[in-house]
Write a structure and sequence with these properties.
about 400 residues; five-stranded mixed sheet; four-stranded antiparallel sheet; 16 helices
């Protein structure tokens, strides 16, 4: 009996400079200008850079001060995570028209298995073009796509002709496409790993594909065998649909170090508010609240609390985070250790609002009702149209 091997068709679709592109689309005054999305100018980092800014060597995760040194004419805008989540939902709705097998990696990228969609929509290239055209036509944004028989090669391909690119890798051509690429393109090879590999004479993905497993394991540990397979274009990982975010967080690096507990709590309240808004936007709740503190000497401390019930409102998240602050060493009411960053996250996520309890908490119910009203106003008029009185100065940028 003959067995037929079905060659998978995997797409990796990645929105082009997503956060910055949304800002440029929403504000015509930003069209064609270098745009940086990120935190405070002095010590924040770049969350996203438009392609106009990238021509100056600016990239995401770069310190904002360095980005502005390279591109002083750039326009800096604060991130609007609720807005990005809303646009992302519309992007993923387009994906879902093509296949139910969609694995989201972040707000702006996903793997799609369209193997079974070819009878309806054509081959992988045709499906990718349909998706790209829908994103442009319905959302006024562009995306780049890679088409291949496996996830790793599709992801590499989607990045080769950005922005607005489409690269198709026919079955059997995976290794040839990968071979000349620098090792920094390899999944998991970053600034710490690459120098050691280059020092060992391995500078391209093709070098990794040809290297003996024992040599790679000596350099990379048990991961070496997997790296060799990926470098040869062999990757049998399936697309896992419905993968949810691990956590929803917000953090801030301050222009000046803070020492007083009251000042820290003020910033933590703002972060709790942003986390709650994103949780509502993404239709999620969580049972774990995480507080992050980074001191002036860059020492990082985290504390986490597991709540009795899942939550998605500002007050519940803030109360848990403020209690966690009392467990952080060096924090005093009048002034303690200097703190350069705080962050709040909601983890152990579940879909939908918090489930009803046997004995409802009337105060919690009122908080949820208020939170729903705030989110509705923000969705209609923008995130800055309504805020807590205690956060007005922050919203105004004072």
């Amino acid at each position: 009996m003959l067995s037929i091997t079905v060659v998978r068709v995997i797409l990796h679709v990645d929105m082009d400079a997503f956060f910055a592109s949304v800002e440029q689309r929403d504000d015509p005054a930003l069209h064609g200008r270098p745009v940086l999305v990120g935190g405070p100018v002095r010590r924040g980092v770049v969350a996203a850079a438009s392609y106009e800014a990238r021509t100056f060597g600016v990239h995401s995760a770069m310190p904002m001060a360095e980005a502005l040194r390279r591109c002083p004419q750039a326009v800096v805008v604060s991130g609007r995570h609720g807005r990005y989540a809303d646009v992302s939902a519309r992007v993923f709705a387009i994906f879902a028209r093509m296949t139910p097998l969609v694995e989201g990696l972040s707000l702006d990228e996903a793997f799609l298995d369209v193997t079974e969609s070819r009878a309806l929509f054509g081959d992988g290239e045709a499906v990718a073009r349909r998706i790209k055209e829908a994103i442009v036509g319905e959302l006024g944004l562009t995306a780049s796509a890679g088409v291949a028989a496996c996830k790793f090669v599709a992801k590499i391909a989607s990045d080769l002709e950005k922005p607005d690119g489409l690269v198709v890798v026919p079955p059997g051509r995976e290794a040839a496409l990968l071979a000349p690429l620098p090792i920094e393109r390899m999944w998991g090879v970053g600034p710490k790993t690459a120098p050691g590999l280059r020092a060992a004479g391995l500078s391209t993905i093709g070098d990794l594909a040809r290297a003996p497993v024992a040599r790679l394991e000596a350099l990379l540990g048990s991961w070496g065998a997997q790296v060799r397979e990926l470098a040869r274009g062999v990757d049998d990982r399936p697309v896992v649909p419905g993968r949810a975010a691990v956590s929803i967080g917000a953090e801030e690096t301050f222009d000046e170090d803070l020492t007083a507990r009251s000042d820290l709590l003020h910033r933590i309240l703002g972060q709790a508010s942003r986390v709650a808004r994103r949780a509502r936007d993404e239709g999620a709740c969580g049972r774990v609240v995480v507080l992050k503190i980074k001191y002036a000497d860059f020492k990082l401390v985290t504390r986490r609390a597991t709540l009795d019930e899942p939550v998605d409102d500002t007050d519940s998240i803030y109360q848990a985070a403020s209690a966690l602050l009392d467990r952080v060493p060096g924090i005093a009411a009048a002034g303690g250790k200097r703190v350069r960053l705080t962050g709040v996250a909601l983890a152990d996520l579940a879909a939908g609002p918090p489930p009803p309890t046997l004995f409802p908490d009337e105060r919690a119910a009122r908080r949820r009702k208020l939170e729903s009203a705030v989110c509705s106003v923000a969705a209609k008029f923008g995130a800055r149209s309504v805020t807590r009185a205690t956060l007005v100065d922050d919203e105004n940028g004072d």
